[in-house]
Fold:
Amino acid sequence: MSYSKDIYELVLKKNPAEPEFHQAVSEVMDALEPVMERHPEYKENRILERLTEPERVIMFRVPWFDDKNRIQVNRGFRIEFNGAIGPYKGGLRFHPTVYLGILKFLAFEQVFKNSLTTLPMGGGKGGSDFDPKGKSDNEVMRFCQSFMTELSRYIGPNTDVPAGDIGVGGREIGYLFGQYKRIRNEFTGILTGKALSWGGSLIRPEATGYGSVYFAQNMLETKNEDFEGKVCAVSGSGNVAQYTIEKLIDLGGKPVSVSDSNGTIHDPDGIDTEKLAYIMELKNVYRSRIKEYADRYDGATYHAGKRPWFIPCDCAFPSATQNEISGDDAALLVKQGCKVVSEGANMPTNPEGVEVFLANKVLFGPGKAANAGGVAVSGLEMAQNAQHTNWTREEVDSRLRDIMKAVHTQSAEAAADYGKPGNYVAGANIAGFIKVADAMLDQGLV
Structure:
Protein backbone atom coordinates (compact mmCIF):
# COMPACT_ATOMS: atom_id res chain seq x y z
CA MET A 1 0.00 0.00 0.00
CA SER A 2 1.26 3.51 -0.86
CA TYR A 3 2.18 6.13 1.74
CA SER A 4 -0.89 8.26 0.95
CA LYS A 5 -3.24 5.26 1.20
CA ASP A 6 -1.62 4.32 4.53
CA ILE A 7 -2.43 7.82 5.77
CA TYR A 8 -6.06 7.51 4.65
CA GLU A 9 -6.41 4.26 6.61
CA LEU A 10 -4.89 5.99 9.63
CA VAL A 11 -7.39 8.85 9.30
CA LEU A 12 -10.29 6.36 9.19
CA LYS A 13 -9.04 4.71 12.34
CA LYS A 14 -8.42 7.91 14.29
CA ASN A 15 -11.57 9.74 13.15
CA PRO A 16 -14.53 7.32 13.21
CA ALA A 17 -18.03 8.39 12.13
CA GLU A 18 -16.83 11.47 10.22
CA PRO A 19 -17.67 10.56 6.59
CA GLU A 20 -17.31 14.09 5.16
CA PHE A 21 -13.81 14.38 6.57
CA HIS A 22 -12.94 10.91 5.26
CA GLN A 23 -14.19 11.89 1.79
CA ALA A 24 -12.12 15.09 1.71
CA VAL A 25 -8.95 13.31 2.86
CA SER A 26 -9.48 10.47 0.36
CA GLU A 27 -9.67 12.89 -2.58
CA VAL A 28 -6.47 14.65 -1.54
CA MET A 29 -4.55 11.43 -0.84
CA ASP A 30 -5.47 10.01 -4.26
CA ALA A 31 -4.11 13.13 -5.97
CA LEU A 32 -0.86 13.18 -3.98
CA GLU A 33 0.48 9.71 -4.82
CA PRO A 34 2.74 10.93 -7.68
CA VAL A 35 3.91 13.85 -5.52
CA MET A 36 5.06 11.47 -2.79
CA GLU A 37 7.04 9.44 -5.33
CA ARG A 38 8.84 12.54 -6.60
CA HIS A 39 9.40 14.10 -3.16
CA PRO A 40 10.57 11.50 -0.61
CA GLU A 41 11.34 14.33 1.84
CA TYR A 42 7.60 14.72 2.48
CA LYS A 43 7.37 11.12 3.67
CA GLU A 44 10.60 11.35 5.67
CA ASN A 45 9.21 14.35 7.54
CA ARG A 46 5.75 12.78 8.00
CA ILE A 47 4.05 15.70 6.30
CA LEU A 48 0.82 13.82 5.59
CA GLU A 49 0.48 12.59 9.16
CA ARG A 50 0.86 16.15 10.36
CA LEU A 51 -1.30 17.68 7.64
CA THR A 52 -4.32 15.44 8.37
CA GLU A 53 -4.22 16.19 12.10
CA PRO A 54 -5.67 19.60 13.09
CA GLU A 55 -3.25 21.85 14.93
CA ARG A 56 -6.03 22.75 17.34
CA VAL A 57 -9.66 21.71 17.91
CA ILE A 58 -11.72 23.97 20.15
CA MET A 59 -15.17 22.85 21.34
CA PHE A 60 -17.27 24.74 23.86
CA ARG A 61 -20.71 25.19 25.40
CA VAL A 62 -22.84 28.14 24.25
CA PRO A 63 -25.63 28.96 26.76
CA TRP A 64 -28.11 31.73 25.89
CA PHE A 65 -31.60 33.03 26.78
CA ASP A 66 -34.44 32.84 24.27
CA ASP A 67 -37.25 35.42 24.08
CA LYS A 68 -39.26 33.52 26.70
CA ASN A 69 -36.34 33.83 29.11
CA ARG A 70 -35.62 30.08 28.88
CA ILE A 71 -32.05 28.84 28.89
CA GLN A 72 -30.92 27.21 25.64
CA VAL A 73 -27.64 25.38 25.14
CA ASN A 74 -25.75 24.84 21.88
CA ARG A 75 -22.28 23.57 21.03
CA GLY A 76 -19.61 25.78 19.49
CA PHE A 77 -16.51 24.79 17.51
CA ARG A 78 -13.38 26.23 15.94
CA ILE A 79 -10.98 24.01 14.02
CA GLU A 80 -7.59 25.65 13.49
CA PHE A 81 -6.30 23.10 11.01
CA ASN A 82 -3.05 24.43 9.57
CA GLY A 83 -1.29 27.77 9.97
CA ALA A 84 1.91 27.10 8.00
CA ILE A 85 1.42 29.91 5.48
CA GLY A 86 -0.53 32.46 7.51
CA PRO A 87 -3.22 33.10 10.15
CA TYR A 88 -6.05 30.56 10.20
CA LYS A 89 -8.84 31.69 7.87
CA GLY A 90 -12.25 30.19 7.27
CA GLY A 91 -15.94 30.67 7.90
CA LEU A 92 -18.34 30.11 10.76
CA ARG A 93 -21.40 27.96 10.01
CA PHE A 94 -24.59 28.07 12.12
CA HIS A 95 -26.79 25.13 11.15
CA PRO A 96 -28.40 22.16 12.94
CA THR A 97 -26.27 19.71 10.92
CA VAL A 98 -22.98 21.13 12.23
CA TYR A 99 -20.81 18.62 14.05
CA LEU A 100 -17.10 17.99 14.39
CA GLY A 101 -16.73 15.86 11.23
CA ILE A 102 -18.28 18.45 8.88
CA LEU A 103 -16.12 21.23 10.28
CA LYS A 104 -12.97 19.13 10.01
CA PHE A 105 -13.80 18.44 6.36
CA LEU A 106 -14.40 22.14 5.69
CA ALA A 107 -11.24 23.23 7.55
CA PHE A 108 -9.12 20.62 5.75
CA GLU A 109 -10.43 21.80 2.37
CA GLN A 110 -9.80 25.39 3.43
CA VAL A 111 -6.08 24.71 3.88
CA PHE A 112 -5.66 23.92 0.17
CA LYS A 113 -8.15 26.52 -1.05
CA ASN A 114 -6.41 29.30 0.85
CA SER A 115 -3.04 28.12 -0.41
CA LEU A 116 -4.26 28.38 -4.02
CA THR A 117 -5.39 32.00 -3.62
CA THR A 118 -1.72 33.13 -3.49
CA LEU A 119 -2.57 35.02 -0.27
CA PRO A 120 -0.86 34.24 3.09
CA MET A 121 -3.72 32.44 4.86
CA GLY A 122 -3.85 29.16 6.77
CA GLY A 123 -6.97 27.01 6.99
CA GLY A 124 -9.67 26.88 9.64
CA LYS A 125 -13.42 26.54 10.10
CA GLY A 126 -15.93 26.81 12.91
CA GLY A 127 -19.54 27.20 13.88
CA SER A 128 -22.37 25.81 15.93
CA ASP A 129 -25.43 23.55 15.76
CA PHE A 130 -27.50 26.70 16.46
CA ASP A 131 -30.22 27.34 13.85
CA PRO A 132 -30.82 31.06 13.17
CA LYS A 133 -33.93 30.28 11.11
CA GLY A 134 -37.10 31.20 12.98
CA LYS A 135 -35.18 33.10 15.67
CA SER A 136 -35.75 36.76 16.48
CA ASP A 137 -32.97 39.29 16.01
CA ASN A 138 -32.62 39.52 19.80
CA GLU A 139 -32.26 35.74 20.11
CA VAL A 140 -29.60 35.67 17.38
CA MET A 141 -27.80 38.55 19.09
CA ARG A 142 -27.79 36.84 22.50
CA PHE A 143 -26.52 33.60 20.94
CA CYS A 144 -23.77 35.40 18.98
CA GLN A 145 -22.65 37.30 22.06
CA SER A 146 -22.39 34.08 24.09
CA PHE A 147 -20.60 32.32 21.23
CA MET A 148 -18.05 35.12 20.79
CA THR A 149 -17.45 35.44 24.53
CA GLU A 150 -15.82 32.01 24.40
CA LEU A 151 -14.35 32.17 20.88
CA SER A 152 -12.67 35.56 21.44
CA ARG A 153 -9.85 34.07 23.51
CA TYR A 154 -8.67 31.93 20.55
CA ILE A 155 -8.79 34.37 17.63
CA GLY A 156 -7.09 37.61 16.54
CA PRO A 157 -6.07 39.50 13.38
CA ASN A 158 -2.70 37.71 13.28
CA THR A 159 -3.93 34.40 14.73
CA ASP A 160 -7.31 33.35 13.32
CA VAL A 161 -9.76 35.46 11.30
CA PRO A 162 -13.22 33.87 10.90
CA ALA A 163 -15.76 34.82 8.24
CA GLY A 164 -19.38 33.95 7.46
CA ASP A 165 -20.74 30.72 6.01
CA ILE A 166 -24.16 29.05 5.96
CA GLY A 167 -26.36 30.73 8.57
CA VAL A 168 -23.84 33.49 9.25
CA GLY A 169 -24.52 36.62 7.23
CA GLY A 170 -24.16 40.34 7.81
CA ARG A 171 -26.44 40.34 10.86
CA GLU A 172 -24.51 37.62 12.63
CA ILE A 173 -21.11 39.07 11.69
CA GLY A 174 -22.20 42.40 13.17
CA TYR A 175 -23.25 40.88 16.50
CA LEU A 176 -20.09 38.76 16.68
CA PHE A 177 -17.83 41.70 15.88
CA GLY A 178 -19.56 43.95 18.40
CA GLN A 179 -19.05 41.43 21.20
CA TYR A 180 -15.38 40.89 20.29
CA LYS A 181 -14.80 44.67 20.33
CA ARG A 182 -16.59 44.94 23.67
CA ILE A 183 -14.51 42.16 25.30
CA ARG A 184 -11.10 43.04 23.85
CA ASN A 185 -11.51 46.83 23.70
CA GLU A 186 -9.98 46.99 20.24
CA PHE A 187 -11.25 47.68 16.74
CA THR A 188 -9.38 45.22 14.52
CA GLY A 189 -10.09 43.20 11.38
CA ILE A 190 -10.98 40.12 13.41
CA LEU A 191 -13.87 39.06 11.16
CA THR A 192 -14.41 39.40 7.43
CA GLY A 193 -17.75 39.92 5.74
CA LYS A 194 -18.30 43.14 7.71
CA ALA A 195 -20.56 45.99 6.59
CA LEU A 196 -18.88 48.56 4.33
CA SER A 197 -19.32 51.36 6.88
CA TRP A 198 -17.16 49.61 9.50
CA GLY A 199 -14.39 47.78 7.71
CA GLY A 200 -15.99 45.59 5.06
CA SER A 201 -14.92 45.19 1.45
CA LEU A 202 -16.78 45.82 -1.76
CA ILE A 203 -17.45 42.63 -3.79
CA ARG A 204 -17.29 40.41 -0.66
CA PRO A 205 -20.97 39.27 -0.86
CA GLU A 206 -20.55 38.60 -4.59
CA ALA A 207 -17.10 37.02 -4.42
CA THR A 208 -17.82 33.28 -4.21
CA GLY A 209 -20.40 33.35 -7.01
CA TYR A 210 -18.36 35.67 -9.21
CA GLY A 211 -15.22 33.62 -8.58
CA SER A 212 -16.93 30.38 -9.55
CA VAL A 213 -17.97 31.92 -12.87
CA TYR A 214 -14.50 33.42 -13.45
CA PHE A 215 -12.93 30.00 -12.87
CA ALA A 216 -15.35 28.43 -15.39
CA GLN A 217 -14.53 31.25 -17.82
CA ASN A 218 -10.84 30.37 -17.56
CA MET A 219 -11.61 26.69 -18.19
CA LEU A 220 -13.70 27.61 -21.25
CA GLU A 221 -10.88 29.75 -22.62
CA THR A 222 -8.68 26.65 -22.83
CA LYS A 223 -11.16 25.47 -25.51
CA ASN A 224 -11.41 28.94 -27.12
CA GLU A 225 -14.99 29.32 -25.89
CA ASP A 226 -16.96 31.75 -23.73
CA PHE A 227 -20.38 31.91 -22.03
CA GLU A 228 -22.24 33.58 -24.85
CA GLY A 229 -25.58 31.74 -25.28
CA LYS A 230 -24.66 28.84 -23.01
CA VAL A 231 -27.48 27.37 -20.90
CA CYS A 232 -26.45 27.19 -17.24
CA ALA A 233 -28.07 25.16 -14.44
CA VAL A 234 -27.50 26.68 -10.99
CA SER A 235 -28.47 25.06 -7.69
CA GLY A 236 -29.21 26.94 -4.50
CA SER A 237 -30.84 30.34 -4.13
CA GLY A 238 -28.65 31.93 -1.46
CA ASN A 239 -25.74 34.28 -1.73
CA VAL A 240 -23.51 32.06 -3.92
CA ALA A 241 -26.25 31.11 -6.37
CA GLN A 242 -27.56 34.67 -6.66
CA TYR A 243 -24.21 36.17 -7.61
CA THR A 244 -23.32 33.22 -9.84
CA ILE A 245 -26.47 34.03 -11.81
CA GLU A 246 -25.66 37.77 -11.84
CA LYS A 247 -22.18 37.19 -13.30
CA LEU A 248 -23.45 34.62 -15.81
CA ILE A 249 -25.96 37.18 -17.11
CA ASP A 250 -23.16 39.76 -17.29
CA LEU A 251 -20.97 37.41 -19.38
CA GLY A 252 -23.73 36.36 -21.80
CA GLY A 253 -24.77 33.07 -20.22
CA LYS A 254 -28.38 31.92 -19.81
CA PRO A 255 -29.08 30.72 -16.24
CA VAL A 256 -32.28 28.66 -16.15
CA SER A 257 -32.61 27.33 -12.59
CA VAL A 258 -32.54 28.01 -8.88
CA SER A 259 -33.39 25.70 -6.00
CA ASP A 260 -33.81 25.40 -2.25
CA SER A 261 -34.13 22.48 0.15
CA ASN A 262 -37.73 21.88 -0.99
CA GLY A 263 -37.29 21.80 -4.77
CA THR A 264 -36.14 23.38 -8.04
CA ILE A 265 -37.38 26.13 -10.36
CA HIS A 266 -36.76 25.61 -14.08
CA ASP A 267 -37.23 28.70 -16.23
CA PRO A 268 -36.46 27.77 -19.86
CA ASP A 269 -36.78 31.43 -20.90
CA GLY A 270 -33.78 32.23 -18.70
CA ILE A 271 -33.36 34.24 -15.53
CA ASP A 272 -32.69 37.90 -16.38
CA THR A 273 -31.78 40.81 -14.10
CA GLU A 274 -35.42 41.56 -13.25
CA LYS A 275 -36.11 37.95 -12.27
CA LEU A 276 -32.88 37.81 -10.29
CA ALA A 277 -33.93 40.91 -8.34
CA TYR A 278 -37.16 39.10 -7.44
CA ILE A 279 -35.21 36.01 -6.29
CA MET A 280 -33.01 38.22 -4.11
CA GLU A 281 -36.05 39.91 -2.58
CA LEU A 282 -37.77 36.57 -2.05
CA LYS A 283 -34.80 34.96 -0.30
CA ASN A 284 -32.99 37.89 1.35
CA VAL A 285 -35.91 40.06 2.48
CA TYR A 286 -38.94 37.79 2.90
CA ARG A 287 -36.97 34.54 3.47
CA SER A 288 -39.64 32.71 1.48
CA ARG A 289 -39.51 29.46 -0.48
CA ILE A 290 -38.35 29.52 -4.09
CA LYS A 291 -41.62 27.88 -5.18
CA GLU A 292 -43.21 31.34 -5.29
CA TYR A 293 -41.10 32.15 -8.38
CA ALA A 294 -43.20 29.75 -10.47
CA ASP A 295 -46.39 31.50 -9.37
CA ARG A 296 -45.05 34.83 -10.64
CA TYR A 297 -43.46 33.95 -13.99
CA ASP A 298 -45.27 32.16 -16.82
CA GLY A 299 -43.28 29.30 -18.32
CA ALA A 300 -41.37 28.59 -15.12
CA THR A 301 -42.06 25.23 -13.46
CA TYR A 302 -41.48 24.03 -9.92
CA HIS A 303 -40.18 20.51 -9.27
CA ALA A 304 -40.73 19.51 -5.64
CA GLY A 305 -37.98 17.45 -4.02
CA LYS A 306 -35.66 17.73 -7.04
CA ARG A 307 -32.27 19.32 -7.69
CA PRO A 308 -31.67 20.95 -11.06
CA TRP A 309 -29.45 18.24 -12.55
CA PHE A 310 -32.28 16.84 -14.70
CA ILE A 311 -32.26 20.06 -16.77
CA PRO A 312 -30.37 19.93 -20.10
CA CYS A 313 -27.53 22.47 -19.91
CA ASP A 314 -24.09 23.40 -21.20
CA CYS A 315 -22.71 24.38 -17.79
CA ALA A 316 -23.61 23.41 -14.21
CA PHE A 317 -22.92 25.44 -11.09
CA PRO A 318 -23.66 23.45 -7.91
CA SER A 319 -23.97 26.25 -5.35
CA ALA A 320 -26.02 24.80 -2.49
CA THR A 321 -24.32 22.23 -0.24
CA GLN A 322 -22.02 19.20 -0.05
CA ASN A 323 -22.79 16.00 -2.01
CA GLU A 324 -25.69 17.43 -4.00
CA ILE A 325 -24.52 15.78 -7.26
CA SER A 326 -24.48 11.97 -7.17
CA GLY A 327 -22.95 9.61 -9.72
CA ASP A 328 -26.36 9.23 -11.37
CA ASP A 329 -26.86 13.00 -11.47
CA ALA A 330 -23.43 13.44 -13.07
CA ALA A 331 -24.17 10.77 -15.67
CA LEU A 332 -27.47 12.47 -16.56
CA LEU A 333 -25.75 15.86 -16.88
CA VAL A 334 -23.13 14.36 -19.22
CA LYS A 335 -25.77 12.54 -21.26
CA GLN A 336 -27.67 15.78 -21.79
CA GLY A 337 -24.62 17.67 -23.00
CA CYS A 338 -23.10 19.37 -19.97
CA LYS A 339 -19.46 20.28 -20.72
CA VAL A 340 -18.53 22.50 -17.75
CA VAL A 341 -19.06 22.08 -13.99
CA SER A 342 -17.80 24.73 -11.56
CA GLU A 343 -18.40 24.07 -7.87
CA GLY A 344 -19.65 27.11 -5.96
CA ALA A 345 -20.41 25.05 -2.85
CA ASN A 346 -17.92 23.01 -0.81
CA MET A 347 -17.57 19.43 -2.14
CA PRO A 348 -21.03 19.38 -3.81
CA THR A 349 -20.15 16.43 -6.05
CA ASN A 350 -19.71 13.03 -4.43
CA PRO A 351 -16.74 10.81 -5.43
CA GLU A 352 -18.78 8.80 -7.95
CA GLY A 353 -19.93 12.02 -9.61
CA VAL A 354 -16.38 13.34 -9.81
CA GLU A 355 -15.27 10.11 -11.50
CA VAL A 356 -18.06 10.44 -14.08
CA PHE A 357 -17.08 14.01 -14.93
CA LEU A 358 -13.38 13.22 -15.21
CA ALA A 359 -13.97 10.07 -17.29
CA ASN A 360 -16.09 12.08 -19.74
CA LYS A 361 -13.58 14.94 -20.08
CA VAL A 362 -15.95 17.49 -18.54
CA LEU A 363 -14.21 20.74 -17.58
CA PHE A 364 -14.63 20.17 -13.85
CA GLY A 365 -13.61 22.87 -11.36
CA PRO A 366 -13.48 21.41 -7.83
CA GLY A 367 -14.66 23.58 -4.95
CA LYS A 368 -11.25 24.16 -3.43
CA ALA A 369 -10.31 25.94 -6.67
CA ALA A 370 -13.56 27.17 -8.20
CA ASN A 371 -15.09 28.66 -5.05
CA ALA A 372 -11.88 30.19 -3.71
CA GLY A 373 -13.18 33.66 -4.64
CA GLY A 374 -14.99 34.09 -1.34
CA VAL A 375 -11.97 33.55 0.86
CA ALA A 376 -9.81 35.45 -1.61
CA VAL A 377 -11.84 38.62 -1.12
CA SER A 378 -11.89 37.91 2.62
CA GLY A 379 -8.11 38.03 2.38
CA LEU A 380 -8.35 41.30 0.45
CA GLU A 381 -10.63 42.64 3.21
CA MET A 382 -7.92 41.71 5.75
CA ALA A 383 -5.37 43.63 3.67
CA GLN A 384 -7.62 46.70 3.51
CA ASN A 385 -8.20 46.54 7.28
CA ALA A 386 -4.46 46.33 7.93
CA GLN A 387 -3.91 49.41 5.75
CA HIS A 388 -6.97 51.23 7.20
CA THR A 389 -8.25 51.90 3.71
CA ASN A 390 -11.00 50.88 1.28
CA TRP A 391 -10.45 49.89 -2.33
CA THR A 392 -12.92 50.66 -5.11
CA ARG A 393 -15.31 48.05 -6.45
CA GLU A 394 -13.35 47.96 -9.71
CA GLU A 395 -10.06 47.36 -7.93
CA VAL A 396 -11.40 44.52 -5.79
CA ASP A 397 -13.12 42.89 -8.78
CA SER A 398 -9.92 43.18 -10.83
CA ARG A 399 -7.90 41.56 -8.05
CA LEU A 400 -10.52 38.79 -7.75
CA ARG A 401 -10.30 38.10 -11.50
CA ASP A 402 -6.51 37.96 -11.26
CA ILE A 403 -6.62 35.60 -8.27
CA MET A 404 -9.08 33.22 -9.96
CA LYS A 405 -6.89 33.22 -13.07
CA ALA A 406 -3.88 32.39 -10.86
CA VAL A 407 -5.84 29.59 -9.15
CA HIS A 408 -6.73 28.16 -12.57
CA THR A 409 -3.16 28.47 -13.85
CA GLN A 410 -1.65 26.78 -10.78
CA SER A 411 -4.17 23.94 -10.96
CA ALA A 412 -3.72 23.38 -14.70
CA GLU A 413 0.10 23.51 -14.54
CA ALA A 414 0.33 21.16 -11.55
CA ALA A 415 -1.99 18.67 -13.25
CA ALA A 416 0.12 18.71 -16.41
CA ASP A 417 3.39 18.51 -14.46
CA TYR A 418 2.25 15.34 -12.70
CA GLY A 419 0.89 13.59 -15.78
CA LYS A 420 -2.80 14.44 -15.41
CA PRO A 421 -3.43 17.24 -17.92
CA GLY A 422 -6.92 18.74 -17.69
CA ASN A 423 -7.59 17.15 -14.31
CA TYR A 424 -8.27 20.18 -12.11
CA VAL A 425 -9.07 17.98 -9.11
CA ALA A 426 -5.56 16.55 -9.06
CA GLY A 427 -4.00 19.87 -10.03
CA ALA A 428 -5.71 21.91 -7.30
CA ASN A 429 -4.85 19.38 -4.61
CA ILE A 430 -1.22 19.12 -5.72
CA ALA A 431 -0.61 22.86 -6.12
CA GLY A 432 -2.29 23.69 -2.81
CA PHE A 433 -0.45 20.91 -1.00
CA ILE A 434 3.08 21.66 -2.21
CA LYS A 435 3.01 25.27 -0.99
CA VAL A 436 1.81 24.22 2.48
CA ALA A 437 4.14 21.19 2.69
CA ASP A 438 7.21 23.25 1.78
CA ALA A 439 6.30 25.84 4.44
CA MET A 440 5.98 23.05 7.00
CA LEU A 441 9.43 21.74 6.06
CA ASP A 442 10.93 25.21 6.38
CA GLN A 443 9.44 25.73 9.84
CA GLY A 444 10.63 22.48 11.41
CA LEU A 445 8.74 20.03 13.59
CA VAL A 446 5.85 22.19 14.84
Q: What stands out?
A: The CA atoms of residues 94 and 167 lie 5 Å apart. The chain has three domains: 1-53+422-446, 55-187, 207-361. Residues 207-361 form a domain with the Rossmann fold fold (CATH 3.40.50.720).
